[in-house]
Automatic annotation (TrEMBL), chain A:
InterPro entries: DsrP-like, NrfD-like. This is Polysulfide reductase NrfD. It is found in: Cell membrane. Keywords: Cell membrane, Membrane, Transmembrane, Transmembrane helix. Coiled coil: none annotated. Its main location: membrane. It comes from Tenacibaculum pelagium. It is a multi-pass membrane protein.
Automatic annotation (TrEMBL), chain B:
It comes from the Bacteria. This is 4Fe-4S dicluster domain-containing protein. Keywords: 4Fe-4S, Iron, Iron-sulfur, Metal-binding. One of its GO terms (molecular function) is metal ion binding. InterPro entries: 4Fe4S_Fe-S-bd, 4Fe4S_Fe_S_CS, ET_IronSulfur_Cluster-Binding. PROSITE patterns: 4FE4S_FER_1, 4FE4S_FER_2. Residues 255-284 form the 4Fe-4S ferredoxin-type domain. Transmembrane segments: none annotated.
């Protein structure tokens, strides 16, 4: 009973914190709300008229939504790169960042689920997927694995920080015996969500571009580069706008994680390119389309070459200690890397899977305004959720939010 | 009549052009196709019923596709009425309430909608439940349009396994099969959805799909070309079935790979998994003009679809399980298409498999299609 009372007080205090703030804060939240409303309006059009308002067709049947979903699974998985050092390896340098990382994972996972729902033709019959009431095609369908993996990871990433913050809110220390098992599971689970998501594509013999044993490992490498890169940027912003203490040391340690992951990612990219272009087969056509265009259809060319150059540039910058240790250069490299991987692991991965089609048909895909509106709306929702979570967590961690008996 | 002959493969794919003339679209140039017979007789017989329905649900009758069955626009009053009715039914009070709603018809409609919304997966239904949902759908159509449809829930027969063979030497690319398929299976006319694709290939290039054109619009047979049709191959090991998260698509006992349109959640994973371009999605509300609707339907086949669900070739389950050939086989003027029971040693399809050099597409994927190609 007492726990409930404390919890109620926590909710009240947190509501109080998130609704008050500086002018910049209010502008930021207002901006996000506006984008969300526009996104909701676009989604209402899609609900009314069907997915025909998107650029997707029978030829390219997944587009911007699934691209963003795939990318964000990676961002969510990246939280593990902070969880493992903090809780398992007891590296105190990561301690301040880990709650932020977990908050980011929660926001990314909610965005993932939103993107999947936005992509569904019949969101009103999603209950067909609920085990018990509906039919859950487990273990045959990788999509059901993904449902379990994502929701499980969401649960873990909500419950651990909630427990820790809840204890700190009451001025007590969190008990290791309670959160350590969860943290350990979450380490494996994070690898799991991204591998399972890769298997979703990797298991399709119909799409040679995806049906490739390197897809899963490359997903992980790019995720552990893009995710922590985003965390660095978020920490930089938090450092600038709040009095939450984050040491340079922490950021530099995360930067090391980003660097190694980005290097591995580049090695895998080279391996992939070598396989596709040294001895090109019929199955290399999607890669040809992506990098050079096929039959004069070149929609993805500017995107992928921007991504590759940004990716290489960022990796080179990160590789040199001198450059990486200069925080402003580091932030710049992180932005480059994040955008590059968003392109590469987003529509650079999904769209070419469908081009050329099963019988060689080359039909290109361009997202429509409504699709982009919904996508931006979901990103704004993610940012809003993260802001709310981070603000509460920072309030508690800095000692401003405390339970008053 | 041949001037008005309707084709579903015009070049302008985005055209919203609707067929307004009453010309026959079945592709036959002489005789009747039975789908456009004057309906005067019926009208006079049902005149009273028609008028009664008109009075109650007037404008709902001009809608097409799934709308006719479910998506009914309502004013606030009737919406409230329906809501009340549904709630009462939900509470199990349907039997005892007599005068809450003014018409028993709208009450019945609401009950049907309610039960249809929360029914289970057709694959897991027993025969009684199957015929119950079919009865509901037929009654619902009758209540809304005043017209009767004939819907079957016939299961697979024993010792039947359907197979298909395609004679590449004979096909001339007329696409009568495509038209017949669209007519038979009530596909969406606006998006010009087609299950069959005919690939026009260049002589001397072999089976080069990359250079083939599956959207041609010129006189056929074109000089120096040959033709090859593809559609759902009804694989014995179908990847689309494996990946469906809700088992909304499955392989029936007689080998047909079917979809429960009411159970599909529209994730399109099956579409990504199909190596043969065999699946289609309803990107918007499918529409078929009332007079063109094929009223001889099967639950797993050509009944009306709704937006946001998958559909595909079912080897015309409404025909094949009734002992007939699929519409494409019947429509083919050159005899390039052969359909039959693979388990019947005397069937034509068995003769083809035993006496011709047959092959299948992408056999290396291990999907075991039941669709063979051969040449004379």
């Amino acid at each position: 009973m007492k726990t409930l009372k404390v919890f109620g007080s926590l909710i009240k205090d947190s509501l109080d914190t998130i609704t008050k703030g500086s002018k910049t804060y209010h502008l930021w939240m207002g901006f996000l709300t506006l984008i969300m409303l526009i996104g909701m309006y676009c989604y209402s059009i899609q609900l009314d008229q069907g997915l025909s308002v998107t650029g997707m067709t029978d030829r390219v049947s997944w587009g911007l939504y699934i691209s963003n979903f795939t990318f964000l699974v990676g961002v969510a998985a990246a939280a593990v790169m902070l969880v493992m050092p903090t809780y398992v390896l007891k590296d105190i340098d990561f301690k301040q960042a880990v709650l932020i990382g977990e908050g980011l994972a929660v926001a990314a996972l909610i965005m993932c689920l939103a993107f999947v729902v936005a992509d569904m033709g019949g969101p009103s019959v999603l209950w067909h997927m609920l085990p018990g009431i509906g039919v859950f095609n487990f273990p045959n369908s990788m999509l059901t694995w993904d449902v379990i993996a994502l929701n499980g990871y969401l649960f873990i990433n909500i419950s651990i920080p909630l427990y820790i913050l809840f204890r700190h809110y009451q001025g007590k220390e969190s008990k290791k015996s309670v959160y350590l098992p969860g943290a350990l599971i979450s380490v494996f689970w994070a690898v799991g969500i991204h591998l399972v998501t890769a298997f979703l594509y990797q298991g399709l013999q119909a799409r040679p571009f995806w049906n490739n044993a390197l897809l899963g490992p490359r997903f992980l490498a790019s995720a552990f580069a893009a995710g922590p890169a985003l965390i660095i940027l978020v920490l930089a912003i938090i450092r600038g706008f709040t009095d939450f203490k984050i040491e340079d040391k922490t950021i530099k340690k995360i930067a090391l994680v980003v660097t190694v992951a980005a290097q591995v990612n580049i090695i895998m990219l080279v391996s992939e390119l070598f396989k596709e272009f040294y001895a090109p087969t019929h199955h290399s056509e999607s890669a040809y389309y992506l990098f050079f265009g096929l039959d004069g259809k070149t929609a993805l060319l500017p995107w992928i070459w921007t991504a590759i150059s940004m990716n290489v540039l960022a990796t080179v910058i990160l590789t040199f200690h001198k450059l990486r240790n200069n925080l402003n250069v580091l932030y710049f490299a992180c932005i480059l890397l994040f955008v590059a991987i968003w392109i590469e692991k987003g529509f650079g991965l999904i769209v070419p899977g469908f081009i050329p089609g099963p019988y060689g048909k080359i039909a290109e895909y361009t997202p429509t305004g409504i699709e982009i509106g919904v996508t931006l709306g979901i990103w704004a929702m993610g940012a809003l959720i993260f802001t709310v979570l981070a603000r509460t967590a920072i309030g508690i961690e800095t000692g401003k939010l405390r339970y008053k008996k | 009549m041949s001037d008005n002959k309707k084709k579903w493969f015009t070049l302008n794919l985005n055209s919203k052009h609707k067929q307004t003339s009453s010309s026959c679209g079945c592709g036959k140039t002489s005789g009747g196709c039975n789908s456009h017979q004057p309906k005067k007789e019926e009208l006079s017989n049902d005149a009273f019923f028609e008028a009664a329905v008109d009075a109650s649900i007037g404008d709902e009758r001009h809608k097409d596709g799934f709308d006719q069955v479910f998506d009914v626009k309502m004013d606030r009053r009737s919406a409230f009425k329906k809501l009340t009715a549904s709630l009462l039914i939900g509470a199990g009070a349907a039997a005892s309430c007599t005068s809450v709603t003014s018409s028993s018809e709208s009450k019945e409609k609401a009950q049907i909608d309610w039960e249809e919304q929360f029914k289970g997966n057709y694959k897991l239904m027993d025969d009684k439940e199957k015929s119950a949902t079919v009865d509901r759908l037929v009654r619902s159509y009758q209540l809304r349009t005043g017209k009767n449809i004939n819907m079957s829930s016939k299961n697979a027969e024993e010792d039947v396994l359907f197979g298909y063979a395609f004679n590449i030497s004979k096909c001339q690319g007329y696409m009568d099969c495509v038209s017949a398929c669209v007519e038979e299976n009530n596909q969406d006319r606006n998006s010009e959805m087609q299950y069959i694709r005919i690939h026009e290939m260049k002589d001397g290039k072999g089976f080069n799909f990359n250079e083939a054109d599956d959207n041609y619009y010129h006189e056929v047979p074109a000089e120096g070309h040959f033709y090859m049709g593809t559609q759902c191959f009804h694989c014995d090991n179908p990847p689309c079935v494996e990946v469906c998260p809700v088992q909304a698509t499955w392989r029936e006992e007689d080998g047909l790979v079917v979809v429960d349109y009411d159970w599909c959640v529209g994730c399109r994973y099956c579409m990504a998994a199909c190596p043969y371009d065999g699946r289609r999605f309803n990107w918007s509300k499918p529409e078929v003009p009332e007079e063109e609707i094929n009223k001889n339907q099967h639950y797993l086949g050509n009944r009306m679809r709704k937006k946001g669900v998958m559909e595909k070739c079912t080897f015309c389950v409404q025909r094949s399980r009734a002992g007939k050939n699929p519409a494409c086989v019947e429509a083919c003027p050159t005899g390039a298409r052969i359909f039959g029971n693979l388990l019947d040693p005397n069937s034509t399809i068995r003769w083809v498999l035993e006496n011709k050099k047959v092959f299948r597409l992408k056999e290396d994927l291990g999907t075991e299609p039941k669709f063979w190609y051969f040449m004379d």
